[in-house]
Design brief:
Largest sheet: 3 strands, antiparallel
CATH superfamily of the largest domain: Winged helix-like DNA-binding domain superfamily/Winged helix DNA-binding domain
Helix content: 40-55%
Distance between the termini: 63 Å
Order of helices and strands: HHHEHHEEEEEH
Strand order of the largest sheet: 1-3-2
Shape: flat
Structural class: alpha+beta
Number of helices: 6
Strand content: 5-15%
CATH architecture of the largest domain: Orthogonal Bundle
């Protein structure tokens, strides 16, 4: 997240981005003010008490406006719904668990933004590079190891009983 986002009020951020200050926009900004990656459905569920007459369509509209104004970042990991985060203004990347779909931010790999330089730009002026690392998070690794250990213990008991 940029330092401006941390020090200015949501109202100021909306106005400086050229957006009207509305209750739905403030509610969404309130939900995404904390680090993390949230789906539109998660955001809709979180604003339900503050805006009981809101709809998913309204949330999608607000998210599109906030992303378009540069106040939110949208990522779209394969096989997962789009996720929104408030960490903007840098060129960070993401780690995604292939088992539970947990997402974590990871700073730029090496060097200056955009971190990666393609072999040929085909005339493009490169502004960012988006990298997604896929693997198993620590919790899923531990669960897999525990399952493997339990299976090994069960086989040992079965083998001992057969003798």
């Amino acid at each position: 997240m940029t330092s401006d986002a941390a020090t200015t009020s949501p109202e100021e951020r909306l106005r400086s981005a050229g957006l009207k200050v509305t209750a739905p926009r403030l509610a969404v900004l309130d939900v995404v003010q904390h680090p993390g990656h949230r789906s539109a459905e998660d955001i809709f569920g979180a604003i339900g008490t503050a805006l009981p007459n809101s709809s998913m369509q309204a949330v999608y509209g607000v998210l599109a406006a906030l992303e378009g104004a540069g106040l939110l970042r949208k990522i779209e990991p394969a096989g997962s719904p789009a996720l929104y985060e408030n960490r903007i203004g840098d060129n960070h990347h993401h780690l995604v668990c292939t088992n539970c779909q947990a997402v974590q931010d990871v700073d730029c790999v090496i060097g200056e933004a955009p971190c990666l330089t393609p072999h040929s730009t085909h005339g493009f002026e490169i502004q960012t590079a988006e990298v997604t690392f896929w693997g198993l998070c620590a919790d899923c690794q531990a669960a897999r190891a525990a399952e493997a250990e339990a299976e090994a213990d069960a086989e040992t008991v079965t083998d001992a009983g057969a003798q």
